[in-house]
Amino acid sequence: MQFPSRRRKNNINPQTELYGHALQFYGQPPLENISLSEFETFAVDRLKLLKTIENLGVSYVKLSEQYAKKLETEFKNLNFPYRPDAKRRKDHISHFILRLAYCQTEDLRRWFIQQEVDLFRYRFNDLPPKHKLEFLHRNNLQYDTISVEEKKTLLDKLVNSSYAVSGITVEDQDFYKVPFQDALDLVRTRKVYLKAGYVYIPHQDIVTIVLNDFRTRLSKALALTARSLPAVHSDERLQPLLNHLSHAYVGQDYSIQKNVGKISLEQIDSLSGKSFPLCMRQLHQNLRESHHLRHGGRMQYGLFLKGIGLSLEQALQFWRSEFIRGKVDADKFDKAYAYGIRHMFGKEGKRADYTPYSCMKVILSNPPSQGDHHGCPFRHSDPELLKQKLQFYKVSPSGISQILELVKGMHYQLACQKYFELTHNVSEASFSLNHPNQYFIESQRVLGGGKDIKREMDTPQRSQDNHTWSDISSLSSPTSFCLIICEEWWLSENQESFALKWRQLL
Ligand code: SF4
């Protein structure tokens, strides 16, 4: 795709202009052509980075040693170089792509701004002092440091007014002279010395000013970008990509059923109490109580069950047995509901193999209305109701407070992760939650002492024959083919690739 070009001033190479410093306010959009695959890769990598920032921001003190160390590792893993000698193109382009995806709603904008500001804070603090000053001047933040003489004259005032600055360190550190209206936060909290319309800000506090500026610019830029969305949406190549990104889930694909047949219907009640995330636990409970779920609930819960390993036959049996206990008779079930279940498994309609919903999808799309039970309880339940649910599930009062605090800060997935830690008695979850099926797998891992889910019913015996893929594809009889497939399914080391081959062959 092509980003709109801009007129070049004074023959300055735009790349040099844009990437002359390790950090930028992202004032200029990218000027070059990129392929759609690069577009997608950059966007997904930045999204992963922002999600890491969100998680770390809640688990660690921001800018603490551990926080910085983990973030630096993530930078390396995602190949996001930004130091002076590295290319900064990916950082720049990926930021602008996510702007397009995350300007669409108030919730998305708020989330994006928060993570970008945290990322910026980390990177600004990581710069050497000389580069910080350079950055300020490049971005028309013409704050100058005061001279040594002026520092000596104002020594007492600076020590008394500036938080965490002692007489010894005043001499060693730079103070910026800034118009007071640019530092209202610091003035309001009385953290700086104010004289004749200027405040004197110690080096470590200048970041507050820069962050405020960055936040304001980004917020305005997102509002402007939102206005141009109709034009972007008219591009049929971009629209699906952008829509996907704003609900993006960047982890494992749980449509590949690794555990098909490993769950028995009798296990579901006990699993729902032990290993289902709250969203699925409440759906299961409501299904058992009212013997019915509306469409949104059937989709969310049905796909989750498919993801944990229910086969189509089991799913039909599960839903039928529950629905006919209520107001739906078997005949009506077969006519009105069985189609939807087969559809979910790709056996009807366009035969798409539907993927279980990720947390982002549950949180951001199709909010529940009166009578619905789908959605994410951390996002969609009233806090008082959520508190009652957590009390009912025997979460401790201090745990409930921690969860509600995270919900208040709109960290819904982290609230869910905290619920996981509290209900599994682990001090810190070793994963970052993105998907209800991931919750289930991690829960089974913890409860099984590190092992994946075990089937309580009979497990098919390992065949003594060691069939290979070519053996199977050369078979002519469909019946024997299916039988061997079943055996091979259990035998296969790599079930995912096996499943793929199977689908291709069918
Ligand atoms: S955060 Fe995800 S797994 Fe947890 S309750 Fe919400 S949607 Fe379900």
Quick overview of this protein structure:
Belongs to the eukaryotic-type primase large subunit family. This protein is mostly helical and about 500 residues long.
Spell out which ligands are present.
Answer: iron/sulfur cluster
The outline comes out as elongated
What amount of the residues lies in strands?
Answer: under 5%
Radius of gyration: 28 Å
> How many DSSP H or I helices?
27
Fraction of residues in helix: 55-70%
Distance between the termini: 36 Å
Q: Please indicate the count of domains.
A: 4
- Unreliable stretches (pLDDT < 50, length at least 5) are 3-10, 454-506
Q: How many strand elements?
A: 4
Structural class: mainly alpha
Q: Topology, pairings included?
A:
Blueprint: H1 14-18, H2 36-59, H3 65-77, H4 89-102, H5 106-125, H6 129-138, E1 144-145, H7 148-153, H8 155-161, H9 167-172, E2 175-179, H10 184-188, E3 193-195, E4 198-202, H11 206-227, H12 229-233, H13 238-246, H14 268-274, H15 278-290, H16 295-308, H17 312-323, H18 330-344, H19 359-364, H20 377-380, H21 383-392, H22 397-408, H23 412-424, H24 436-447, H25 469-473, H26 478-491, H27 495-505
Antiparallel strand pairs: 1-2, 2-4, 3-4
Short descriptors:
single chain; 506 residues; mainly alpha; Transcription Elongation Factor S-II, Chain A; four-stranded antiparallel sheet; 27 helices; 4 strands; 3% strand; disordered N terminus; disordered C terminus; binds iron/sulfur cluster; DNA-binding; DNA_primase_lsu_euk/arc; iron; metal-binding; DNA primase large subunit
